């Protein structure tokens, strides 16, 4: 998704879309029963022309009223490049994406082009790239994608920041130290309904960050949630209920964010994965962790999985250099020259935004 050639590739794609705009662009597409394999009619002919304009269908295949295998493959390619479910048929979501004007897409590409000089700085031989709008992570080594992972990123009201750093440490079976904002918004309201939630979530409470453990029954839960969050520290123990599950990947940043495992893995099956409070949850995280450690001190995939099952607390400081780039790209050109588009989930396109915290405060990152 990001390399030293990204700007050049996007500039070339912008010229292509400028020609499309000068040529009048394309019309709207409506979902219909004929727009699936085996369908026939003028709607299919219009779809062929629409796909050909953007380069998904050869000009030689423009004519025809049959929704054949070639058209289905072109639609599947369009869906994949727009982060849609790949079905090969034109449903409502696909029709809506096809109806976005060429001029609007051109403006999206131009908004992303200004971000690339900053994002492509110091791309070393090994780096982890997280593209927030795409909810996707790539582990890159020597300009080659070693592994690709679905990720869960920050919801619009709690957005993930755009940062560049280096991985410093891997925490296996980590504690989760709840930020005050989560104590106020989530934990205290749940406890007021049922104090047993603390035991279920394996949360211990302490009198301040380094203070002694406190019996939850001694706390006045009727007090304002802000007072409770200011006075007490909430820590979730390692285990199946831990918000970070088996591993946490740390890197220095002022926003208190990190990458981690998650106990709620079913969310990775969602098409748009904007559910977290700012941190990034990683699918198949052990595969990523194994690559990050690079067999350092014998840490391989087998050993990592064994430690994860044991629930033993182990911290491993990273010896090699692995950079981290969290970026915000709603449009980028792939190696094939085709442009990938994703939703402007934080409404940042056209604002001049490049790096930092999109909205709100960095306090209270929770994962």
Give an overview of the whole structure.
With 367 residues, the protein is an alpha+beta fold. The protein contains eleven helices and 16 strands. The protein has helices at 6-22, 42-53, 69-81, 92-98, 102-113, 116-119, 180-193, 196-200, 225-231, 285-293, 301-310, and strands spanning 126-131, 136-141, 144-154, 164-172, 176-177, 203-207, 213-214, 232-236, 247-251, 259-260, 274-276, 280-282, 314-317, 323-327, 331-333, 339-341. It has an eight-stranded mixed barrel with strand order 1-2-3-12-10-9-4-14. A hairpin with a 2-residue loop joins strand 2 (136-141) and strand 3 (144-154). Helix 7 packs across helix 9. It is elongated. The two termini are 24 Å apart. Residues 361-366 have low confidence and may be disordered.
């Amino acid at each position: 998704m990001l390399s030293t050639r990204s700007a050049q590739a996007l500039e070339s794609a912008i010229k292509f879309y400028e020609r499309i705009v000068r040529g009048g662009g394309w019309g709207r597409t409506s979902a219909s029963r004929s727009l699936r394999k085996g369908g026939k009619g003028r709607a299919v002919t219009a779809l062929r022309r629409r796909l050909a304009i953007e380069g998904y269908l050869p000009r030689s295949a423009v004519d025809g009223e049959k929704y054949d295998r070639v058209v289905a493959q072109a639609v599947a390619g369009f869906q994949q490049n727009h982060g849609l479910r790949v079905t090969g048929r034109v449903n409502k979501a696909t029709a809506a994406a096809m109806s976005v004007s060429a001029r609007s897409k051109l403006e999206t590409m131009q908004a992303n082009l200004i971000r690339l000089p900053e994002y492509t700085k110091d791309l070393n031989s090994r780096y982890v790239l997280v593209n927030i709008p795409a909810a996707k992570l790539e582990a890159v080594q020597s300009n080659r994608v070693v592994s690709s992972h679905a990720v869960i990123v920050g919801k619009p009201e709690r957005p993930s920041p755009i940062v560049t750093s280096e991985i410093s440490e891997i925490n296996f079976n980590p504690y989760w130290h709840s930020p005050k904002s989560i104590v106020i918004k989530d934990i205290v309201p749940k406890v007021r309904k049922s104090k047993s939630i603390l035991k279920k979530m394996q949360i211990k409470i302490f009198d301040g960050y380094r203070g002694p453990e406190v019996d939850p029954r001694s706390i006045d839960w009727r007090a304002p949630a802000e007072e409770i969050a200011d006075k007490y520290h909430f820590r979730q123990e390692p285990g199946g209920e831990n918000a970070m599950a088996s591993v946490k990947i740390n890197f220095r940043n002022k926003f208190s964010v990190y990458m981690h495992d998650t106990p709620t893995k079913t969310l990775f099956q969602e098409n748009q994965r904007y559910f977290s409070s700012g941190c990034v949850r990683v699918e198949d995280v052990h595969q990523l962790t194994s690559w990050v450690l690079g067999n350092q001190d014998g840490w391989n995939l087998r050993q990592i999985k064994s430690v994860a099952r044991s629930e033993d607390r182990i911290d491993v400081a990273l010896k090699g250099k692995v950079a981290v780039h969290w970026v915000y790209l709603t449009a980028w050109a792939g190696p094939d020259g085709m442009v990938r588009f994703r939703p402007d989930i934080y409404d940042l396109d056209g604002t001049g935004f490049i790096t930092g915290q999109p909205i709100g405060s960095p306090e209270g990152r929770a994962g």
